[in-house]
Amino acid sequence: MAFHDWKWLLLLGRQTTLAKVWRSRRGGPSLCWKRCCHWSTGKSLDPEVRAFLEENTEVTNSGHLTPEIRLRLLTPRCRFWREKPDLWPYGDPFWAIYWPGGQALSRYILDNPRVVKGRSVLDLGSGCGATAIAAVMSGASQVLANDIDPIAGMAMILNCELNHLNPFPITIKNIINSEAGNWDLIVLGDMFYDEQLADGLHRWLQKCIRTHQTEVLIGDPGRHQFLSHSIRSQLHKVIEYSLPENTRQENYGLTSSIVWSYHPSNSSDNS
Ligand SMILES: C[S@@+](CC[C@H](N)C(=O)[O-])C[C@H]1O[C@@H](n2cnc3c(N)ncnc32)[C@H](O)[C@@H]1O
């Protein structure tokens, strides 16, 4: 299966299927992947990984909703766009795509800095880190990016460098099963693509809101798993963006992306 097929499946919302295929073909995480985990404990970016990411991504600020932000992404000009995934030494590169949900959130934050100014912000499932970057650029007092993929963490550091920002703190812990985080604002871009993950997120977000009155913003382009999830009935539409042509082409059938605000009802849905 070529990388292009991976992307195609991913964009159809069948990430889980692809992740299983990918993993079974590669036989689990590589040694290099394990070594990368040390980065989160404060060691500097592994030079071998840095070189690999720099060689196999393209720096771009076009084709997405936030030309103010430069990112290292996987584009048709990159080797692994067509290369066999077996040769890719790390986990599935979700971080190498700037997803429509994250694009909408970042655009909204850049256009409405008051949403984050002077506030603490958690970008959950940060991927390439664009939304966290938008929060820093817009004056958030504290930003934490969270992604369970350690390579995403490294890509975020490179993306901070590209945008002349000091890297914000990044954690690769799976925090959604832990206690509620005390954040003024939690942002989630394109995170409702898998039912089990969506259930876990929903429960954790409810806890954060009830414990700390956290504000929650979700960016999603209308994926089936999101629209059919119980959280959908408790969301209020904030703004809808028409997607740029390039993003439309990459995201078969999707034409816009929406920022939603989450207000759980007291009567409560405990899903
Ligand atoms: C579809 S991508 C979205 C990335 C980014 N928010 C954007 O919109 O471009 C989903 C990201 O969530 C991460 N992820 C999946 N499960 C997670 C979890 N339990 N906690 C944190 N991140 C997670 C994946 O590694 C991936 O980078």
TrEMBL record:
Membrane-traversing stretches: none
UniProt-annotated location(s): Cytoplasm; Mitochondrion matrix
Residues annotated as signal peptide: 1-19
GO biological process: methylation; negative regulation of fatty acid beta-oxidation using acyl-CoA dehydrogenase
Tree of life domain: Eukaryota
Molecular function (Gene Ontology), one example: protein-lysine N-methyltransferase activity
Primary localisation category: cytoplasm
Record Gene3D superfamilies: Vaccinia Virus protein VP39 (3.40.50.150)
A GO cellular-component term linked to this record: mitochondrial matrix
Entry keywords, A to Z: Cytoplasm, Methyltransferase, Mitochondrion, Signal, Transferase, Transit peptide
Reactions the enzyme catalyzes: L-lysyl-[protein] + 3 S-adenosyl-L-methionine = N(6),N(6),N(6)-trimethyl-L-lysyl-[protein] + 3 S-adenosyl-L-homocysteine + 3 H(+)
InterPro entries hit by this protein: Ribosomal_L11_MeTrfase_PrmA, SAM-dependent_MTases_sf
Family per similarity comment: Belongs to the methyltransferase superfamily. ETFBKMT family.
Full protein name: Electron transfer flavoprotein beta subunit lysine methyltransferase
